[in-house]
Write a structure and sequence with these properties.
Length: 140
């Protein structure tokens, strides 16, 4: 079963998120790009924010998740450690398992949802609008 997109799984360490969907995506992007800045750009994230997340990841686990090298002639770089790769794989497996576990409940729950295109206009049209003198409309 594909992962349910509305599911957000966060693994806490001492009340702080050690791993969640954004951090898992960032680690995978660093692994693919070989640098924090390129990974951040690919995600539309600032370099500063990506660096903060990498620091938080490395502080949350017993071993580094991402190793960094400072720039030189060809610039620096970043390498996802074996632990980092394993953590992302485990995290994705837990997301899939959680999605599978709620699949039946989600189908039953979804039957009660309003069927709309989900746009803002749909939400506005279903609101109750005031009428009468208090709303600025003239009584006829």
């Amino acid at each position: 079963m594909a992962r349910y997109p509305g599911l957000t799984l966060r693994i806490l360490a001492d009340q702080h998120p050690a791993m969640g969907p954004g951090k898992a995506r960032l680690v995978a992007a660093i692994d693919a790009a070989g640098s924090i800045s390129a990974a951040a750009r690919s995600m539309g994230m600032s370099y500063r924010r990506a660096w903060q997340l990498v620091e938080a990841l490395n502080e949350s686990f017993s071993q580094p998740v991402v190793l960094t090298a400072t720039g030189g002639r060809r610039g620096g770089g970043a390498v996802v450690t074996a632990l980092g790769k394993r953590l992302v794989k485990l995290y994705r497996a837990m997301e899939n398992k959680a999605s599978s576990a709620i699949a039946g409940d989600l189908r039953r729950f979804s039957r009660h949802l309003r069927k709309t295109s989900g746009g803002r206009a749909d939400r506005r049209s279903s609101r109750i609008r005031p009428s009468g003198p208090a709303s600025g409309q003239r009584a006829t």
